[in-house]
Write a structure and sequence with these properties.
The complex is a heterodimer of chains A (115) and B (117). By secondary structure, chain A is mainly β. Chain A has strands spanning 5-7, 10-13, 19-24, 31-37, 43-50, 53-56, 65-68, 75-79, 88-95, 105-106, 110-114. In chain B, strands 2, 5, 6, 10, 11 and 12 form a 6-stranded mixed β-sheet that branches. In chain B, strands 3-9-8-7 form a 4-stranded antiparallel β-sheet, with no helix packed on it. The chains are: A mainly beta (115), B mainly beta (117).
Chain lengths: 115, 117
């Protein structure tokens, strides 16, 4: 059973370009979370999605950032018109259900560098 | 506000000595608490969790954590540290929002553990 798969592992974008980060949850998991980790900082919650629905996007910047989790295919975190401050590691996690004791499993992350 | 605090940015311990990484929480209702470890350039790996029952929880790689309700703490411990334990450790709590029916994991800022040979 493959774990949470994120790609690409490393992504370099010039200022003003778009960044697309992909996350395939573990098999059987329908809950996906995206987190951002800035250098020397902790994990900041961004968005929580279930299939085809955004459940909680309270951590998403109001502009340029969007996320989706379609019925088929991976979850996508999209950052439009990237700026240097977007450089960070973006982690995706998935869990199996609504049981409060369920742990989340993390992918290896995508390291975005904006030049 | 529901939150998790890790008061120490870094903990240094000599190899073979016991280690403790501190975590306190603030939640309404029953806490569901987790510890994760992150090695350089890697994702987070689940170590252990507390849901209910015995206050001492055992996890991966010889780690354990003690839940203390009166002190609202969930400190991570290991009797004898290894150099290979050097990593970034995150405490997390899963919180639910009754009004919206949603829940999410809230993480602490992380504690860097350095085990010295």
């Amino acid at each position: 059973n493959a774990g949470v798969m994120q790609n690409p592992r490393h992504l370099v974008r010039r200022r003003g370009q778009e960044a697309r980060l992909r996350c395939s949850p573990m098999k059987g998991h329908s809950h996906v979370y995206w987190y951002r980790q800035l250098p020397e900082e902790g994990l900041k919650f961004m968005v929580y999605l279930q299939k085809e629905n955004i459940i909680d996007e309270s951590g998403m910047p109001k502009e340029r950032f969007s996320a989706e989790f379609p019925k088929e295919g991976p979850s996508i975190l999209r950052i439009q018109q990237v700026v240097r401050g977007d450089s960070a590691a973006y982690f995706c996690a998935s869990s199996s259900g609504t049981g409060m004791g369920t742990e989340a499993f993390f992918g290896q992350g995508t390291r975005l560098t904006v030049v | 506000a529901q939150s998790v605090a890790q008061p120490e940015d870094q903990v240094n311990v000599a190899e073979g000595n016991p280690l403790t990484v501190k975590c306190t929480y603030s939640v309404s209702g029953n806490p569901y608490l987790f510890w994760y470890v992150q090695y350089p350039n890697r994702g987070l790996q689940f170590l252990l969790k507390y849901i209910t029952g015995d206050n001492l929880v055992k996890g991966s790689y010889g780690f354990e954590a003690e839940f203390n309700k009166s002190q609202t703490s969930f400190h991570l411990k290991k009797p004898s540290a290894l150099v290979s334990d050097s990593a970034l450790y995150f405490c997390a709590v899963r919180v639910s929002f009754v009004s919206s029916g949603t829940y999410k994991y809230i993480f602490g800022t992380g504690t860097r553990l350095k085990v010295l040979a």
